[in-house]
Design brief:
434 Repressor (Amino-terminal Domain); 2 domains; five-stranded antiparallel sheet; four-stranded antiparallel sheet
């Protein structure tokens, strides 16, 4: 169980429920905030705010987290709808005061709802909430009966997408879409191409307190460098066996990843860093063992969260 910060006491129950669900999905996936940022369109600092109740995550962020960890997309969508209404202070559809919704056709003399009507029909807000959750449950059930698929683009994009079907399971829920393969991935972002969706750490080292990881995608046959616990200006660089290399530097926060190099196997690449202090170093060529990812900076005792 992660050592999460306590959520704000005044957080609306629907917002609290969404955040707690997102925390649970992240914990079960084993992803660090850096890895989550790598697989989504949102930075690590943004996820820190979302998962600590400091800001409401946009719907796109919730959906991307769901895809990254194999969560039930319909359930998360329903939870986000409720949280967004609560955060913005909007009423659920159909909810209003009796004076705004007369029960009589005589507009001059609207009548108040009878006590019998109250006993028969629940408040409109709860009705809308129930419909959302029931809809989510129904969609999740349908999805559970189907099969998921991994879709990737081959070296020749003119051949169209290649699909590998597999049975649906909690760890394989959803779909992975990648838009490059091997040579066509060179110089591209693992996040924007979808290659980060199945990324794993094939080699790792530490240079003056900065973790350096060689990240690899089996679907894309490509590798890249990621550094954590760095500082603005520190460089993440990936070097292929044939000496092709790409790099990027930390612009803010503490981590960055490089563009990719083509690599048929993890052993065809190394991850390096060059720090602003002048220190530098590289990992060994990647191995076949999936290593535990580098610890997240926010796991330090003073941070009190993950």
């Amino acid at each position: 169980m992660a050592n999460w910060k306590s959520l704000p006491q005044d957080l609306d129950p629907d917002v609290r429920n969404l955040v707690e669900q997102l925390r649970q999905y992240k914990d079960r996936s084993g992803l660090s905030l850096a890895a989550l940022a790598e697989r989504t369109l949102h930075s690590k600092s943004s996820w820190e705010r979302y998962l600590n109740g400091k800001a409401l995550p946009p719907r796109q962020a919730v959906e991307s987290l769901g895809r990254a960890v194999g969560a039930d997309s319909a359930r998360l969508a329903a939870l986000w709808e409720l949280a967004e209404r609560a955060w913005s202070g909007r009423e659920a559809p159909g909810q209003g005061s009796p004076a705004d919704s007369p029960t009589s056709t005589d507009s001059a003399a609207p009548t108040a709802p009878s006590s019998h009507a109250k006993d028969v029909a629940p408040p409109a807000g709860r009705t809308a909430r129930g419909k959302l959750l029931l809809t989510a449950a129904a969609v999740v059930t349908v999805l559970a009966l189907g099969a998921a698929a991994v879709v990737w683009w081959g070296p020749d994009d003119s051949t169209g997408p290649h699909t590998v079907a597999h049975s649906a399971s909690p760890s394989a829920a959803g779909q992975l879409y990648t838009h490059c393969f091997q040579e066509s991935c060179a110089g591209k972002s693992p996040k924007e191409t979808g290659c980060a969706g199945d990324a794993w750490t094939a080699a790792m080292t530490r240079v003056h307190g900065v973790y350096v990881e060689l990240r690899y995608s089996d679907s894309c046959k490509a590798a890249w460098s990621r550094i954590s616990w760095g500082h603005p200006g520190d460089i993440a660089k990936v070097v292929a066996a044939e000496h092709a290399s790409y790099q990027d530097k930390v612009h803010y926060d503490t981590d960055i990843y490089s563009p990719m190099v083509a690599s048929a196997t993890p052993s065809g690449a190394r991850a390096c860093t060059v720090l602003t202090s002048g220190a530098h170093g590289c990992t060994k060529p990647g191995g076949s063992t999936h290593l535990t990812e580098a610890p997240d900076p926010t796991l330090s005792p003073s941070a009190g969260n993950r």
